[in-house]
Structure formats: C-alpha cells, structure tokens
Design goal:
The chain is built from 13 helices and 15 strands. By secondary structure, it is an alpha/beta fold. α3 packs across α13. The longest helix is centred in the middle third of the chain and has 19 residues. 48% of the residues are buried. The chain binds (2S)-amino(hydroxy)ethanoic acid and manganese (II) ion (2 copies). The site of (2S)-amino(hydroxy)ethanoic acid has 5 residues, from loops.
C-alpha cells in the first residue's frame, strides 16, 4: 500500500505556506486542526478507537481491550513555518498504512496497538519543543505550558481552548504512560549524521531505512535587547540606543562559538519592534538553537556567547543527550537485516518518551538531500514504502 500516494498524499493541499512550496501547520492553527481531522478520518477508515488525551495528543487504538502494554507508533502533524511535507506526517501516515497492510494480511494483534500524533512537537508557535509528549510524561508543567505565548501574545491555553481542546486537565498522564509498552517513531532522516560505522547517513550507507541510536543534546535560548525607539533620519548615532547592534553581536558570537566547539548553533528567529525600516527599534529579541553530540560543547557555546557579548541567553527548552533503548534498537535493527543505526541531530517525541523510561526507538527513512525544515525536504516514494515495510516487520516481530 502506497503511503505517499495514499494517506500522506491526502495532506498535500493542507496548510500550504505563503511560499506555495512548503507547509505552515503550526500547533492549534486551522491547518493543524485540518491535519487532526485527517488523523480521525484515517483512524475511522481502519475502524480504530480514537481518543484525544488531556494534552491534545491524538490516539487511534487497535484492540485496546487486549491485556498487556501497548505497542505504540506514530509521530506529529504540526510543522515549522514553511516546513516540508514529511517531517511528522510521514510517521503518522506510515503507521496507519502499516495497520492497513497488517489488516489486509489478516494479522491479529496479541496486545493493544496504537497510532499516536503528539501535539505541538515543533514548538514553532509557542517556543517549547514536544509540548504534547512532555506534558504527558510530566517533563513540562501544565502551568508553564498553558502560559506559553505566541508572537501575537496569545497563550497556548487560549489556542487550545479555541480549538475545542479542554485545558483543565492538562498535565502528567501517568496512567497513559504506564500503558505504553514500547514506542517506535518512524521519521524522515534529517541531515546526514554519521552512523555507528562512520558512514554519513543513509545515503552513504546506501540504505533506505535505518534505526535511531539516540538524539543529540540540544536546546533553545532567548535574548532580549532593550533600545530607544526613535526616528532613523533624525537621531544622531551618538544619541542612539539601538538594540540591533547587540543583536548583531550575539548572532556573530553564536556562529564563532559553534565553530570553536564543533557544535551546530543557529539564530533562525528574531523579533524587532516596531519593525519599521525608518525607525530605530525600541526593542529586539533573538532565539538561539544549539546542539552537539556532546552536551559540554553546547554549554560552552552559550558560555562563550555570554562572555563575549555580555548578554545572558535565557534557556526556554532543553533536551538532554538521549539514547534509545539499546535492546529494542538492536532487536529492531536485527529484524530488519542489520540496517544502519544512527544518531539524530533533530529532536523528536521519541526522545521525550525515551528520557521518561519508555522503551523507544526510531525508524529513519532516507532523505536524499538531508534537507529538512524547508520545502525541499523529500524522500523517494520507494524509500517511504521501505519504511512502511520496516514498520510492518517490526510489528510482526514485536506484537505476536
Ligand atoms: O527541532 C527539531 O529538532 C525537531 O524537528 N523538532
Ligand atoms: Mn521538525
Ligand atoms: Mn519531526
């Protein structure tokens, strides 16, 4: 059963971004809600029991009545602004397609199975990554989550409420976590990081599918720059308090520190108020994303930025160095014929569940260019089919 031509293809026109080439499906926006509707339709077509949990995560259950803990698969549906078509939805569409394939072949599960779409994985709108899964495992307080604001000053609580998602019970869902026996997230490969055998990603390994070893430590920080708003054409340079000078200094310090410590650090989002070409800004803010194979390198980048610029970034999101369950990872790789096992520089809900002690691993589908978080993100249809086949093989080996 084709996943790209089938279920994933059904999202082709949902939430197309302003560029017309990518997708803008930020959490709890109309586009995200359309994707959530698609999830319900996929589940309905497979006669799965659907539920939305207290944190807005979507679940589609196959034989929830069976004894034992569940085999759970899935990913997320929200995107970054102008993101690609595969990051998130490929994992959800592949999970539904795997169930459809198993159903067609008269497979009978021996324990509960579920497809999950975690809410707000990208954190593109409210700033914190993996909100739905972090709330579920208790790694993010409901107070902090509900108070998160988007760039218009709207809160996550308002956005969820407006979307019809009650927020009064948002928070740790220990009972649900206890029901998860293992979680396998299928995801498009992002970048070409070296596999354990040193080959850089699935292209170098000449493999359509790999297994995730873990996730690099990474975090997000914010820096605010105060200024004095004034006229661009009438204020002498000496009389200015221009926040853009400090902002520019931090941007350059971030790149220099990343080079120094072999980290990946990015300033991808800035906010300048009022943002008029002929006004000296009254204030400005920037956000830093920093990652590395080693947490010390990440911490050194931030320490250098503080030392060199005198500005102190405020940490908004942190993901510790994450190793997926070694036994599950090795077993899945073995089921698939010893495919490459490789780390991920990208964060995932799988990382949140792994850090919460849930046996977790990932299936990564080859990305020819490695490009992601951009309209150019793509995976070959044949490789997506290999991904579904790998998920089916994993289920057959793990749920019998
Ligand atoms: O930012 C990340 O690494 C992921 O795509 N959320
Ligand atoms: Mn992403
Ligand atoms: Mn993702």
């Amino acid at each position: 059963m084709s996943v790209v031509g089938g279920l994933l293809g059904e999202l082709t026109d949902v939430g197309v971004s302003a560029s017309g080439r990518g997708y803008d499906r930020q959490s709890w926006t109309a586009a995200d809600l359309e994707c959530r509707q698609w999830f319900l339709q996929c589940a309905d077509a497979l006669d799965l029991d659907v539920e939305t949990d207290r944190n807005g995560n979507l679940w589609a259950w196959w034989r929830p009545d069976l004894p034992g803990t569940a085999f759970v698969m899935g990913s997320h549906l929200d995107s970054v602004p102008d993101g690609g078509a595969y990051d998130g939805p490929l994992g959800v569409a592949s999970a539904f397609t795997a169930i459809a394939t198993l159903r067609r072949d008269d497979f009978v599960p021996t324990r509960p199975m579920a497809v999950v779409a975690f809410a707000d994985e990208e954190g593109a709108r409210f700033g914190v990554a993996c909100v739905g899964s972090r709330l579920m495992v208790g790694a993010l307080s409901s107070e902090r989550a509900l108070g998160l604001k988007d760039s218009d000053g709207g809160s996550l609580a308002d956005a969820m409420t407006r979307a019809g998602q009650p927020v009064r019970h948002v928070g740790h869902d220990a009972e649900r976590v206890a029901r998860i026996g293992e979680f396998v997230e299928l995801h498009i490969e992002q970048g070409h990081l070296p596999a354990r055998d040193g080959r850089a990603g699935l292209i170098a390994a000449d493999a359509p599918v790999g297994v995730g070893a873990g996730i690099w430590p990474h975090g997000r920080w914010r820096v605010d720059f105060p200024g004095q708003q004034n006229h661009a054409g009438t204020t002498p340079l000496a009389a200015r308090r221009d926040p853009m000078i400090g902002l520019a200094h931090v941007v350059l310090a971030v790149r220099r520190a990343a080079q120094t410590y072999g980290a990946l650090a990015t300033v991808g989002k800035v906010r300048v108020v009022p943002g008029a070409v002929n006004s000296i800004p009254g204030s400005a803010s920037l956000w830093i994303d920093a990652r590395a194979a080693d947490e010390r390198a990440v911490r050194r980048v931030l320490a250098d930025v503080r030392r060199v610029t005198g500005f102190s970034p405020t940490e908004e999101s942190w993901t510790a160095d994450t190793a997926f369950d070694p036994g599950l990872t090795a077993a899945v790789a073995a089921h698939l014929g010893d495919v490459p096992v490789l780390p991920s520089g990208a964060g995932h809900d799988a990382g949140v569940l792994a850090l919460a002690g849930i046996p977790t691993t990932m299936l990564l589908v080859r990305n020819p260019t490695g490009i992601s978080h951009a309209p150019e993100e793509r995976a070959d249809d044949a490789d997506c089919e290999h991904g579904v086949a790998a998920l089916v093989a994993t289920i057959r080996a793990r749920v019998r």
